[in-house]
Amino acid sequence: MNSNIQLLKEVLTNHIQLATSGWSMGSFGVIAEFHQDADEPLLSDKPADCLRATNRGAIHIEQFDDIQPVAYEILSKNENRWQHGLALCLPDEKARMGQRNVLTDLGPDEKAVLEDHRGWRLFDMGINALGSGCGQVDFCIRTDNEELINILRDNLGKPIFESGVMPEILKAHPHRIAITPIGRVEVFQKIGGPDTGDKSPEGPHTHLLPKLIQSGNSHNANIAIPDGLIPCAYLHPESPMVDNLGADKPFDRGAYDAFQKLLDIWGTEPYMATKTTVFAQLKNGLEPEDPKLYKSRVQRMAHRMAVRQALFL
Any idea what DSSP says for residue 267? Predict the structure, then answer.
């Protein structure tokens, strides 16, 4: 196995066992997230296969050969926070799924993480009709509810948001499955809406936001993904300043340092060079130049990030 792939697999294998690390698969505006609690019972646990399942959801990273990791940091509107992650990218030509535009019956979900779900019916929702930027994910629903299956079959070949089936889906709460070329995230919990107090449940959940999908973006524009790559999944390591529920916590230098190691390996060169320069200037008591002087958005982000992180360090 290629040494870079081996290193990536070791990192992901480690993080899939950590309750402090989160995961997501999908595109801009349509995503499935996997989170776990420290004491949560496991229904399947195969770290070597990057597979884990609980009563609330599951994740399985199935192939690594072409993955190109990109570590990133982005500023938060809250001046005391920032976000970081590891985007798992593929070359554009290898990052494409079915790109369906209509509701489609895919048959039994033979690749379901849990064997009990492999006879359930899988339907592609055809979200590509909303925007071209979500081609790296087949966003599906899975169910054994015969009433819902019959309703879905009656509407095959139609754009789902024009078919009138969404209220039935919201009522039945089928599993949501985000399938990408590198693997899948499965969510078993209820869909955020009237039955959940209009809030996404804690733990595994999904977001389907048509307005963001219609932008045509494959990812958040603040994440500097090199040209020619498409992010299919994300690892979200522990934050140094907020807990798993997004509440403030005392600055955790260990969590900060742990992610900086990933950034040193897989951060992009313009970001890392600028951040290193600004840190050195601050350490030597120099006033960094105005970030507006940088022509690159990535460099401006790196400058502001270094100044913000210096306050904690």
Answer: B
148 vs 122: CA distance, rounded Å: 12
Indicate the pTM of the whole model: 0.95
**Dihedral, 126, 129, 135, 136 alpha carbons, nearest 10:** -40
Alpha carbon of residue 15 to chain centroid: 14
Domains of the chain, by residue range, sit at 1-267, 268-313
Could you give phi then psi for residue 271, rounded to 5 degrees? -65, -50
Cβ burial of 260 (10 Å; 0-12, 13-18, 19+) is middle
15 close to 225: Cβ distance less than 8 angstroms = no
Looking at residue 1, what is its pLDDT? 46
Tokens of residue 119, six digits: 């006879």
pLDDT < 50: residue spans in the chain: 1
Q: Hey, is 297 helix, strand or coil? A: helix
Residues found in the chain: 313
Query: Are the beta carbons of 83 and 76 closer than 8 angstroms?
Result: yes
